[in-house]
TrEMBL record:
Pfam families: MIOX. Binds 2 iron ions per subunit. It comes from Aristolochia fimbriata (White veined hardy Dutchman's pipe vine). Its EC number is 1.13.99.1. This is Inositol oxygenase. GO terms for molecular function: inositol oxygenase activity; iron ion binding. Its cofactor is Fe cation. Belongs to the myo-inositol oxygenase family. It comes from the Eukaryota. Pathway: Polyol metabolism; myo-inositol degradation into D-glucuronate; D-glucuronate from myo-inositol: step 1/1. InterPro entries: Inositol_oxygenase (IPR007828). GO terms for biological process: inositol catabolic process; L-ascorbic acid biosynthetic process.
Length: 313
């Protein structure tokens, strides 16, 4: 892939106004007005529950459920499982439907891994897309990427087997090598079978340094699934959009810089867009409600531009 194939990051994409403090143990991001994104996107100082964003230690109504989710996720997400499920779901033989039909299927699901959100997924998708659209009006590919980035959560739907939440959502990270200390709820990974594998428990594991993230097996979930759906249905979105879809939950990379030794030059070019996207994905939650009927024609036009009318899922 050439540099020209990666959409250039605008010079004023993000400007720091106040340094963020990060709790290394739980990944919480603290402080008010941490970043001001161009054209007025101000990062709020608390989530919808009045807590710091991604604070997994703060007592709240959702804490117990989030803790239990990550216990199950970390105990069950193994290299063997991820490899098996990627092969199984890459057949795309579950359904045939449009992008918007998939959006509507997500109307009744809430992400159990998210301490900042208790709204249906369609609300989050629209909030993220509209926030990005306001600040990056000329990057229509990014608007659509925001709208569809979580559509892989359709795996929760009975039509797709009604998979458990730990199988679908949560932060992602590489498998086949040592678990980094910055992974959310890292303590639960001590019980993961891969932790005792003599190869998987080493820094590089089965990989070579700078092998490129495209060659790395990640934990299985909605990110990997939607990446496969978009790629195999031959979307015309730029490669960086697929990169964002696949790695938007890889918080230990874009927040802490973990696993950079696995990155190649292509990853380094695309990481800047991933970091920009991640701020909107996180900080737009619970903000202004979006009038669906007003914005629907615009997103329909983008779907028609970048995707076929029907997709295999």
């Amino acid at each position: 892939m050439t540099v020209q194939e990666v959409v250039a990051v605008p010079c004023k994409g993000v400007s720091a106004t106040k340094a963020a403090s990060v709790n290394e143990e739980n990944g919480a991001i603290n402080g008010s007005s941490l970043l001001e994104v161009e054209q007025g996107f101000i990062v709020p100082d608390h989530n919808a529950f009045g807590n710091s964003f991604r604070d997994y230690l703060k007592e709240s109504e959702r804490k117990a459920g989030v803790d239990e989710f990550y216990r199950n996720h970390h105990l069950n997400q193994t290299f063997e499982l991820a490899t098996k499920k990627k092969e199984e779901y890459s057949k795309l033989n579950r359904a045939e439907m449009s992008i918007w039909e998939c959006c509507e299927l997500l109307n009744h699901f809430v992400d159990a891994s998210d301490p900042d959100l208790d709204e249906p997924q369609i609300e989050h998708l629209l909030q993220t897309a509209e926030a990005i659209r306001k600040d990056y009006p000329n990057e229509d590919w990014l608007h659509l990427t925001a709208l569809i980035h979580d559509l892989g959560k359709v795996l929760l739907h009975p039509k797709f087997g009604g998979q458990p939440q730990w199988f679908v959502v949560g932060d992602t990270y590489p498998l086949g090598c040592a678990f980094d200390q910055t992974i959310t709820h890292r303590k639960f990974l001590d019980g993961n079978p891969d932790s005792s594998n003599p190869v998987f428990s080493t820094k590089l594991g089965i990989y070579k340094e700078n092998c490129g993230l495209e060659n790395v097996t990640m934990t299985w979930g909605h990110d990997e699934y939607m990446y496969l759906v978009a790629k195999e249905n031959k979307t015309t979105l730029p490669p960086v959009a697929l990169y964002i879809i696949r790695f938007h939950s890889f918080a230990s990379l874009y927040t802490h810089g973990a696993y950079e030794y696995l990155m190649d030059d292509k990853d380094k070019e695309m990481l800047e867009w991933l970091k920009i996207f991640a701020k909107y994905d996180l900080y737009s939650k619970g903000r202004l409600k979006i009038n669906l009927e007003e914005v629907k024609p615009y997103y329909f036009s983008l779907i028609d531009k970048y995707f076929p009318a029907k997709l295999r899922w």
